[in-house]
Specification:
The chain has 548 residues and is of the alpha/beta class. Helix content is 36%, strand content 22%. The structure holds manganese (II) ion (MN).
Length: 548
């Protein structure tokens, strides 16, 4: 079976990781690998959402978790037996399929137990006249196993425990032999010995079996009917009848209800635990509705998984979709520092210190002499522009610049205008819907001693919109501070293009003069080079608030 291959970027996907996954999957398909699909390990951010709709491209498949499931390795060809079927059928199944455990199913197809081969072996090893003559079966299943028909009386499905005697001796000896047994629990097997037949019927045995397909006298039949003795005629000889009768026990009667089971949707790890640590040789796998899906054994754990991954825009498993560690990684295409785990096979590992993964994917198109479509070129272009902040980031290389010019031509786009569009889409304050949402969408609470404060952050492309909205934003910040009962509430408006932040602050007037940043107007601080709330602003505020 050919594997399904997912090209997937890191968790919290950004535009570069989504664009490179889609474009690389497209290249693979162009090169003839049909089962390659672009995937993503998280929801799209607003910028990427905008981009894909702008280009009319469908979002990649969302894979939240790729931990292999039991269904991925299960062979759905389980051999099973109905609980009403005789042990004879079960034995035939063991024989023909070379299995060690046989699931027993109810009418609905749900397992009620399992028959281990060992249990059947133990049963047939039982010796001693008492246990050898015990037959646990219904008259119906006895008739079926003996290929017999009722000449008197009729059967039913109730399982009874009967003692079997062969009438192959003189009538007197036979009578002595069965003395002491309740006739209602006796099965007598005999040929055309009229005296034995009559003796059994007169005693009112439960069942008389006449072997060899031999004729039974009319008066014997009449007497059997009168005495309510069931009478079966079988074509089998006496020896075969005796051994078959012991195999008429319904499978359900032997089923062990204490079996291990796991759902098809359960993680493969759970099956591994059950098989390796519980000492079970087989675990029943159930469909969601409780019916049998299959039987998993240790060899199931060595079945190849039906899918594998190509990682783009990351190489560290800690950044990968959960479960990636259990799958085969076929390739890596990335521009980050290396932190990849070892692989068991040599793989294409394509990395370069460039500004974006899309730059590398664009060069792979070139290498394979596959010209990207205008749409793919635009997608790759967006990935580069996004990751390099329109070629302004210090990570930008000459290779990124060359690639951008080349892709812009193929896509028929002005890259600068396209870049501005991309960032406007991610950074538009108006896109939040209201000043309250701008302030509150990513608002986090902190404290310094007794002082509680909160800081929100939004990213913008240029401060023009902020200048227009700042009065409304101050109002929203004030009501949020009041609502949360905070000493200070702030909003970081971070401009990705200039890598600086305007920090809008409500409350904490007494601290303003300790902030150490220029204040173009009351409540606003201009913080050049500050981008990170976690690493820069919050540690600074904690120092300021604590120092007073
Ligand atoms: Mn990237």
């Amino acid at each position: 079976m050919e594997k399904e291959i997912y090209v997937i970027g890191h968790r919290n996907p950004d535009t570069d990781s989504v664009a490179s996954a889609i474009a690389y999957a497209r290249l693979k398909r162009e090169l003839g690998e049909e089962r390659v699909t672009a995937a993503m390990a998280g929801a799209l951010n607003p910028q990427t959402t905008w981009l894909l709709s702008r280009l009319g491209i469908k979002a990649p498949l969302y894979l939240a978790d790729v931990h292999p499931k039991v269904r991925d390795v299960l062979r759905r060809t389980a051999v099973s037996v109905a609980e009403t079927a005789p042990l004879l059928t079960a034995l035939e199944l063991f024989h023909h399929h070379g299995i060690r455990v046989l699931p027993v199913l109810d009418q609905r197809g749900a397992p009620t137990g399992v028959i281990p081969l060992l249990k059947i072996a133990e049963r047939s090893l039982a010796t001693g006249p008492a246990s050898l003559r015990l037959v646990t079966a219904s008259l119906d299943s006895l008739a079926a196993c003996l290929e017999a028909s009722f000449l008197a009386g009729s059967g039913d499905g109730a399982v009874e425990t009967l003692h079997l005697f062969v009438g192959a001796m003189a009538e007197e000896s036979f009578t002595a032999k069965i003395a002491g047994f309740d006739p209602a629990n006796l099965v007598v097997v005999t040929g055309d010995r009229r005296s034995i037949q009559l003796s059994a019927i007169e005693r009112g045995v439960r069942l008389l079996v006449v072997t060899g397909g031999l004729a039974v006298d009319k008066d014997v039949l009449r007497l059997a009917a009168e005495n309510r003795v069931a009478l079966l005629s079988t074509p089998l000889d006496t020896a075969a009848t005796v051994s078959r009768a012991r195999l008429a026990t319904p499978a359900g009667h032997l089923a062990d209800p204490g079996f291990e089971s796991v759902s098809v949707g359960a993680p493969l790890g759970r099956l591994r635990e059950k098989l390796l640590h519980s000492g079970e040789t087989a675990v029943l796998v159930l469909e969601e509705d409780g019916t049998l899906a299959g039987v998993a054994t240790k060899s199931s754990l060595f079945e190849p998984l039906p899918y594998a991954l190509i990682l783009v825009d990351h190489n560290e498993l800690s950044q990968s979709v959960p479960g990636a560690e259990d799958l085969e990684i076929l390739e890596v295409v990335d521009h980050h520092k290396l932190g990849n785990p070892p692989t068991s096979n040599p793989i294409p590992f394509i990395t370069a210190p460039v500004g974006s993964t899309c730059t590398i994917v664009a060069s792979l198109y070139e290498e394979h002499r596959v010209p990207p479509s205008a749409e793919t070129a635009a997608l790759l272009l967006a990935g580069i522009l996004s990751d390099t902040v329109i070629l302004k980031s210090p990570t930008t290389t000459a290779k990124d610049r060359d690639t951008v010019s080349r892709l812009a031509v193929l896509a028929g786009l002005d890259w600068q205008a396209f870049g501005a569009e991309i960032f406007a889409a991610s950074g538009a304050l108006s896109g939040y819907g209201s000043p309250d949402r701008v302030v509150g969408s990513d608002f986090k609470l902190f404290s310094q001693g007794e002082i509680r404060f909160g800081v929100g952050q939004v990213e913008v492309f240029g401060f023009a919109e902020f200048e227009e909205m700042k009065t409304e934003l101050k109002g929203a910040l004030a009501s949020l501070r009041e609502k949360e009962g905070l000493e200070l509430a702030g909003l970081m408006v971070t401009d990705i293009s200039s890598e600086s932040t305007m920090f809008l602050m409500d409350g904490g007037q007494g601290y303003s003069r300790f902030m150490g940043y220029p204040q173009p107007e009351p409540q606003v601080f201009e913080m050049k080079g500050v981008m990170s709330r976690k690493k820069q602003l919050v540690p600074h505020l904690i120092k300021v608030l604590g120092g007073r």
